[in-house]
């Protein structure tokens, strides 16, 4: 596989972690790595600098240091940097459109106190044309296990691009793919007068749900026969089931749907996973062309 993986840098530790993750992913895929920073001189925003040239030197030094660090760790990797004079949101959206994936730190780029994902990153996640991976600051101590790629699957609703991304990521890692689907007994059955009968109905519904999940995954299992797949079906909240399945994962993949009239938003499950998953999270638009 070839192409380009882009990491957005802003000088924070979380952005540095994103660059490191992107470098490892680029080496794994045989891709080039592009490190970018969006910068617009606004003297009223940075009163302690007061000097356009000094701030620009700091930005260029930050990019150079990031490139040097990555090059030391991955000497064979094709790494380029670019300082783009523009606002962050349009810059990052353009990068997401041209790259195989955009990688960002889960804090920084406009983070508000109390929020894991910054306001600018949230705008990028809502509107990006391609996959965006959010990476948190590395944990100290024992390295996190990375034995599985976890993907949330809603049969009949998930786009091909999401499953393509998840299976490809598992194949590149030699990892197991855990396909997770959460479901619940329809309210009309759970609270009907014959409440004992729906227990048997629910068992039948669970079997139907498992069959739908298997049917949804079959084309991708055929395309990626080397990927071991665990099909997990549980009752409960989709976000809770997905989060409970992801602590040992190396990557969690979720979809993002586009809505009518050009409106794009993050669904509640994707939003919850972004804020609470301990692993990197890839948000893939359901309607983007499969890679």
Automatic annotation (TrEMBL):
Belongs to the universal stress protein A family. This is Universal stress protein. The lineage of its organism: Bacteria, Bacillati, Actinomycetota, Actinomycetes, Kitasatosporales. It comes from Streptomyces badius. It holds the Pfam family Usp. Gene3D superfamilies: HUPs. Residues 1-135, 148-285 form the UspA domain. PANTHER family: ADENINE NUCLEOTIDE ALPHA HYDROLASES-LIKE SUPERFAMILY PROTEIN. InterPro entries: Rossmann-like_a/b/a_fold, Universal_stress_UspA, UspA.
């Amino acid at each position: 596989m070839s192409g380009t993986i882009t990491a957005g840098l802003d000088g924070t530790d979380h952005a540095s972690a994103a660059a490191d993750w992107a470098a490892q992913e680029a080496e794994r895929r045989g891709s080039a790595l592009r490190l970018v920073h969006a910068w617009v001189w606004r003297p009223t925003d940075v009163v302690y600098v007061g000097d356009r040239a000094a701030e620009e030197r700091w930005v260029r030094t930050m990019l150079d240091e990031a490139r040097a660090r990555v090059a030391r760790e991955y000497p064979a990797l094709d790494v380029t940097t670019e300082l783009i004079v523009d606002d962050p949101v349009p810059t990052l959206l353009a990068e997401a459109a041209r790259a195989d994936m955009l990688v960002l730190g889960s804090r920084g780029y406009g983070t508000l106190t109390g929020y894991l994902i910054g306001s600018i990153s949230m705008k990028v996640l809502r509107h990006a044309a391609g996959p965006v991976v959010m990476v948190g600051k590395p944990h100290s101590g024992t390295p996190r296990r990375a034995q599985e790629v976890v993907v949330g699957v809603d049969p009949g609703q998930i786009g091909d691009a999401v499953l393509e991304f998840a299976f490809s990521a598992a194949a590149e890692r030699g990892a197991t793919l855990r396909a997770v689907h959460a479901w619940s007994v329809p309210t009309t059955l759970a609270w009907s007068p014959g409440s004992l009968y729906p227990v048997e109905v629910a068992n039948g519904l669970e079997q139907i749900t498992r069959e739908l999940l298997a049917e949804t995954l079959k084309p991708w299992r055929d395309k990626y026969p080397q990927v071991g797949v665990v099909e997990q079906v549980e009752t409960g909240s989709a976000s809770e089931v997905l989060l409970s399945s992801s602590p040992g994962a190396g990557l969690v993949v979720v979809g993002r749907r586009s809505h009518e009239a050009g409106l794009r938003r993050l669904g509640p499950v994707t939003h919850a996973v972004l804020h609470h998953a301990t692993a990197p999270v890839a948000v893939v638009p359901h309607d983007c062309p499969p890679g």
